[in-house]
Amino acid sequence: MKQNQHQILFAFIIFVFGIFHCGSGVELTELPIGGNIEAKDKSGINVNLKSFPEPVLLVFFGYTYCPDFCPNTLAKIKAATEGFTELEKKQFRVVFVSIDPERDSTETTTKYVQFYIQNAVGYSFDMATTNQIVKQYAAYVEKTKDGLSFDHSTYLYVLDSNRKTRKLIKSTDEKEVISKTIRALSGDSVQSK
Protein backbone atom coordinates (compact mmCIF):
# COMPACT_ATOMS: atom_id res chain seq x y z
CA MET A 1 0.00 0.00 0.00
CA LYS A 2 1.43 3.36 -0.98
CA GLN A 3 1.98 6.13 1.58
CA ASN A 4 -1.02 8.21 0.34
CA GLN A 5 -3.36 5.22 0.41
CA HIS A 6 -2.07 4.34 3.88
CA GLN A 7 -2.75 7.88 5.13
CA ILE A 8 -6.26 7.92 3.58
CA LEU A 9 -7.10 4.59 5.24
CA PHE A 10 -5.85 5.89 8.59
CA ALA A 11 -7.86 9.12 8.20
CA PHE A 12 -11.00 7.08 7.44
CA ILE A 13 -10.45 4.88 10.50
CA ILE A 14 -9.97 7.96 12.69
CA PHE A 15 -13.21 9.41 11.25
CA VAL A 16 -15.11 6.22 12.10
CA PHE A 17 -13.43 6.18 15.52
CA GLY A 18 -14.60 9.77 16.08
CA ILE A 19 -18.20 8.80 15.38
CA PHE A 20 -18.11 5.97 17.92
CA HIS A 21 -16.02 7.94 20.40
CA CYS A 22 -18.68 10.61 20.92
CA GLY A 23 -20.76 10.21 24.02
CA SER A 24 -20.16 10.03 27.74
CA GLY A 25 -19.62 6.27 28.15
CA VAL A 26 -16.78 4.11 26.97
CA GLU A 27 -17.57 2.96 23.44
CA LEU A 28 -16.09 -0.38 22.48
CA THR A 29 -16.44 -1.35 18.86
CA GLU A 30 -14.43 -3.70 16.67
CA LEU A 31 -12.04 -1.74 14.46
CA PRO A 32 -10.64 -3.17 11.20
CA ILE A 33 -6.99 -2.55 12.15
CA GLY A 34 -4.49 -3.99 14.55
CA GLY A 35 -5.17 -7.35 16.11
CA ASN A 36 -2.90 -10.23 16.98
CA ILE A 37 0.81 -10.08 16.27
CA GLU A 38 2.53 -13.36 15.41
CA ALA A 39 6.20 -12.87 14.58
CA LYS A 40 9.72 -13.64 15.77
CA ASP A 41 11.44 -10.72 17.44
CA LYS A 42 15.13 -9.86 17.01
CA SER A 43 16.13 -11.96 20.03
CA GLY A 44 14.51 -15.07 18.52
CA ILE A 45 11.40 -15.08 20.73
CA ASN A 46 8.19 -16.16 19.00
CA VAL A 47 5.68 -13.42 19.80
CA ASN A 48 1.96 -14.18 19.83
CA LEU A 49 -0.27 -11.68 21.60
CA LYS A 50 -2.87 -14.40 22.15
CA SER A 51 -0.44 -16.10 24.54
CA PHE A 52 -0.84 -13.36 27.16
CA PRO A 53 -3.38 -14.22 29.88
CA GLU A 54 -4.57 -10.63 30.35
CA PRO A 55 -7.95 -9.89 28.74
CA VAL A 56 -6.86 -6.37 27.72
CA LEU A 57 -3.71 -5.34 25.87
CA LEU A 58 -2.65 -1.75 25.26
CA VAL A 59 -0.43 -1.80 22.16
CA PHE A 60 1.75 1.25 21.66
CA PHE A 61 4.32 2.10 18.96
CA GLY A 62 7.37 4.12 19.91
CA TYR A 63 11.10 4.04 20.47
CA THR A 64 13.43 4.34 23.45
CA TYR A 65 15.09 7.54 22.17
CA CYS A 66 11.71 9.29 21.87
CA PRO A 67 12.00 12.70 23.56
CA ASP A 68 8.37 13.41 24.41
CA PHE A 69 5.30 11.44 23.28
CA CYS A 70 6.51 8.00 24.33
CA PRO A 71 7.54 8.87 27.90
CA ASN A 72 4.48 11.12 28.32
CA THR A 73 2.07 8.40 27.14
CA LEU A 74 3.70 5.72 29.30
CA ALA A 75 3.59 8.07 32.31
CA LYS A 76 -0.11 8.68 31.60
CA ILE A 77 -0.83 4.92 31.53
CA LYS A 78 1.04 4.59 34.84
CA ALA A 79 -0.98 7.43 36.39
CA ALA A 80 -4.23 5.98 35.02
CA THR A 81 -3.62 2.58 36.61
CA GLU A 82 -1.89 3.49 39.89
CA GLY A 83 -5.16 3.30 41.78
CA PHE A 84 -6.00 -0.16 40.42
CA THR A 85 -6.43 -3.07 42.81
CA GLU A 86 -4.06 -6.03 42.44
CA LEU A 87 -6.83 -7.90 40.59
CA GLU A 88 -7.39 -4.98 38.19
CA LYS A 89 -3.64 -4.77 37.49
CA LYS A 90 -3.78 -8.38 36.28
CA GLN A 91 -6.47 -7.48 33.72
CA PHE A 92 -4.20 -5.59 31.31
CA ARG A 93 -0.71 -5.51 29.86
CA VAL A 94 1.12 -2.85 27.87
CA VAL A 95 2.84 -4.08 24.69
CA PHE A 96 5.39 -1.59 23.38
CA VAL A 97 6.54 -2.17 19.79
CA SER A 98 9.73 -0.36 18.77
CA ILE A 99 9.65 1.54 15.50
CA ASP A 100 13.44 1.92 15.71
CA PRO A 101 14.80 -1.63 15.43
CA GLU A 102 18.22 -0.36 14.35
CA ARG A 103 18.86 1.08 17.83
CA ASP A 104 16.36 -0.77 20.05
CA SER A 105 16.76 -4.37 21.17
CA THR A 106 13.91 -6.32 22.75
CA GLU A 107 15.76 -6.26 26.09
CA THR A 108 16.30 -2.49 25.97
CA THR A 109 12.71 -1.88 24.88
CA THR A 110 11.32 -4.04 27.70
CA LYS A 111 13.51 -2.27 30.31
CA TYR A 112 12.38 1.07 28.94
CA VAL A 113 8.66 0.34 29.15
CA GLN A 114 8.95 -1.43 32.52
CA PHE A 115 10.52 1.70 33.97
CA TYR A 116 7.01 3.15 33.73
CA ILE A 117 4.73 0.12 33.95
CA GLN A 118 5.77 -3.13 35.60
CA ASN A 119 3.21 -5.22 33.73
CA ALA A 120 4.59 -4.38 30.30
CA VAL A 121 6.69 -5.94 27.59
CA GLY A 122 8.68 -4.40 24.77
CA TYR A 123 9.50 -5.90 21.40
CA SER A 124 11.93 -5.07 18.64
CA PHE A 125 11.49 -6.84 15.31
CA ASP A 126 13.57 -6.68 12.15
CA MET A 127 12.72 -3.78 9.85
CA ALA A 128 10.57 -5.80 7.44
CA THR A 129 8.46 -7.23 10.27
CA THR A 130 8.21 -3.82 11.94
CA ASN A 131 6.92 -2.31 8.69
CA GLN A 132 4.39 -5.13 8.32
CA ILE A 133 3.07 -4.62 11.88
CA VAL A 134 2.91 -0.83 11.40
CA LYS A 135 0.77 -1.38 8.27
CA GLN A 136 -1.42 -3.91 10.08
CA TYR A 137 -2.16 -1.27 12.72
CA ALA A 138 -2.43 1.59 10.19
CA ALA A 139 0.08 3.47 12.32
CA TYR A 140 2.02 6.43 10.99
CA VAL A 141 5.82 6.26 11.18
CA GLU A 142 8.31 8.41 9.33
CA LYS A 143 11.98 8.98 10.05
CA THR A 144 12.91 12.65 10.38
CA LYS A 145 15.40 14.24 8.01
CA ASP A 146 18.18 14.13 10.60
CA GLY A 147 17.71 10.34 10.80
CA LEU A 148 17.78 10.39 14.60
CA SER A 149 14.11 10.58 15.47
CA PHE A 150 10.68 9.65 14.15
CA ASP A 151 7.36 11.34 13.58
CA HIS A 152 4.83 8.74 14.60
CA SER A 153 1.23 8.24 15.63
CA THR A 154 0.72 8.06 19.37
CA TYR A 155 -2.46 6.05 19.76
CA LEU A 156 -2.97 3.28 22.26
CA TYR A 157 -4.60 0.36 20.47
CA VAL A 158 -6.84 -1.43 22.96
CA LEU A 159 -7.17 -5.14 22.21
CA ASP A 160 -9.68 -7.53 23.77
CA SER A 161 -9.07 -11.15 24.81
CA ASN A 162 -9.58 -12.29 21.20
CA ARG A 163 -6.98 -9.67 20.22
CA LYS A 164 -9.43 -7.62 18.23
CA THR A 165 -8.89 -3.86 18.35
CA ARG A 166 -11.82 -2.41 20.28
CA LYS A 167 -10.73 1.18 20.87
CA LEU A 168 -8.12 3.78 19.96
CA ILE A 169 -7.07 6.07 22.78
CA LYS A 170 -5.46 9.35 21.74
CA SER A 171 -2.37 10.61 23.55
CA THR A 172 -4.36 13.78 24.34
CA ASP A 173 -7.19 11.86 26.07
CA GLU A 174 -7.44 12.19 29.83
CA LYS A 175 -5.96 9.39 31.93
CA GLU A 176 -9.49 8.43 33.04
CA VAL A 177 -10.22 7.29 29.48
CA ILE A 178 -7.47 4.69 29.87
CA SER A 179 -8.63 3.43 33.27
CA LYS A 180 -12.32 3.36 32.28
CA THR A 181 -11.54 1.52 29.04
CA ILE A 182 -9.47 -1.16 30.79
CA ARG A 183 -12.18 -1.66 33.41
CA ALA A 184 -14.99 -1.74 30.85
CA LEU A 185 -13.25 -4.16 28.50
CA SER A 186 -11.89 -6.48 31.18
CA GLY A 187 -15.43 -6.80 32.49
CA ASP A 188 -16.99 -7.04 29.02
CA SER A 189 -18.56 -10.48 28.82
CA VAL A 190 -19.73 -9.94 25.23
CA GLN A 191 -16.39 -10.20 23.43
CA SER A 192 -15.99 -10.15 19.66
CA LYS A 193 -15.90 -13.58 18.03
Could you walk me through the main structural features you see in this protein, from its secondary elements to its overall organization?
The chain is of the alpha/beta class and 193 residues long. It has one domain (3-186): Glutaredoxin. Helix content is 36%, strand content 20%. It contains 6 helices and 9 strands, in the order H-E-E-E-H-H-E-H-E-H-E-E-E-E-H. Helix 2 (69-81) packs across helix 6 (175-186). The longest helix has 19 residues, at 3-21. It is globular, with a radius of gyration of 16 Å. The chain starts with a helix and ends in a 7-residue tail after the last helix. InterPro entries: SCO1/SenC, Thioredoxin-like_sf, Thioredoxin_domain. Belongs to the SCO1/2 family. This is SCO family protein. Cu cation binds at residues 66, 70, 152.
List keywords for this structure.
alpha/beta; two-stranded antiparallel sheet; 20% strand; disordered C terminus; Glutaredoxin; 9 strands; 6 helices; five-stranded mixed sheet; 193 residues
- Stretches where pLDDT falls below 50 for ≥5 residues? 6-24, 189-193
Tell me the domain tally. 1
Strand content is: 15-25%
Structural class: alpha/beta
CATH fold type: Glutaredoxin
Output the number of helix runs.
6
DSSP helix fraction:
25-40%
CATH superfamily: Glutaredoxin
Name the CATH architecture: 3-Layer(aba) Sandwich
In which order are the strands of the major sheet placed?
5-4-3-8-9
> Biggest sheet, in brief?
5 strands, mixed
Distance between the termini: 28 Å
- What spatial form do the alpha-carbon principal axes imply? globular
Query: How many strand segments?
Result: 9
Mean pLDDT: 86
- Give the class-level CATH name: Alpha Beta
Order of helices and strands: HEEEHHEHEHEEEEH
Radius of gyration: 16 Å
